[in-house]
Amino acid sequence: MASGQRLSPLLNKSSEQSLIKAKIDQVKEMEFPMESITIEITDYPGNKQISVMAVRGFLDTMTAPVMEEKLRLALWDKKYKLIVDLSGVDYICSAGWGVFVSEIKGIRNAKGDLVLAGMKPEVSQIFDLLEFNRFMKSYPDTESAAKKAFLKPPGNSRKLK
Fold it and tell me: Which of 28, 37, 41, 125 has fewest C-beta within 10 Å?
């Protein structure tokens, strides 16, 4: 609508402004469904040095700050061996991926690691497309992540004769 053009020739300017204000108020009162995120951090069964961060929901620009805060709290508690269980996540945007990327170097400097587990195919495709698999490990589930990333048997230490 061009500047100065009226909504309706039947409405005077005052009525038109009232109508617009009423529409704005109506939109403000509407409830927009927002996808939420839940994150639960627990110890891996049988090994308190490994933490599992179970994420459920959508990891997008609205929820990435929540994920970032939970991850920082885990690191504050010196939880440097982290499995992020993404089996309940249907979508991760660039801000969500950025949370993992921004912290991984510090975690590794603290002799830990952050690995991903349980990615759904649509999430895994983006992970591979972005080539995050070049510097971040992913596993089919938390059990394989724990065994392969953190519960490795000691190296083959043969005794010399």
Answer: 28
